Amino acid sequence: MSVPARRTPFVSQLRSRPGVIRLGAPDEAVFALRVEMPDVWDTVRIDAPPSTPAVDVKRVALDALFPEGQFLEDFVLKLHGFEVMDEQASIAEAGARDGSIFLLTFRRRRPVR
């Protein structure tokens, strides 16, 4: 079964690391997401089905952007400026849609050196 062609959201055209992190089955419909981590000045693209738990998006983005981050609890995933409080909920339930941009940042401020 082939997946119908879809329009690529604008956020997919913005600068990010090369390649796309793919979650879910190859033939599943996906949201094209962008996850930015301002603390390291980097961005990744993630294609994930709408039913993907937000914590899975957070985990793969953290692995790609900040592999030395040991604990997921030390980081916050935000959408539209607000923390995704229930990370077990799907990204669609959290309010994401095709082309959404998530922000991944430290939960607490870090000292400036």
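[next item in queue]
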Amino acid sequence: MGLGLGYNEIISVASAVAHNKPLSELHSYESHPWLRENFLGWLNGQAMSLSSVYHRIVELAASEFRVRAREVFDSLKSMKEQKSFMLHESLPLEFNESKNYNVIYYDMFSGKMNLPYWEEDFFKHFLQFNAGTPCHFATYAATGKLKRALKGSGFQIVSKSGFSGKRQSTYAKKP
């Protein structure tokens, strides 16, 4: 499960290609229509504003995992065509069914912009309905609310340095 612009999804597919372990499902949530349209248009071979960015992300991920960029792109496109990759609109604040994701990339912008998604009660509810067993959770954020919710949901916090000048980021795993 990814929340954000699409780079985590590309990296996940590159890793799956490299390890010859196809992903069963990949769900991504992006609230901004323009970003969804760009990503889907790019996957459909249309010239979009962000096409060069997505191509570059594929190249970098492929290089990191020592696979061909075309194979990463084709795998993601095939997942979309087979409906095992789904790009959704906003992440719902309420969940009625469990998804049991094994990996969650939580790139939900910031608490200043998306406050409800950064509250401790939301994290607890979100993790209850979405975190499978096992589950890996990663985000650039390192808040007390997040860490308490993760620990309360059976996750172990792994200390990680931050990105781009941030002191910390959060990586947690649930065995």
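[queue empty]
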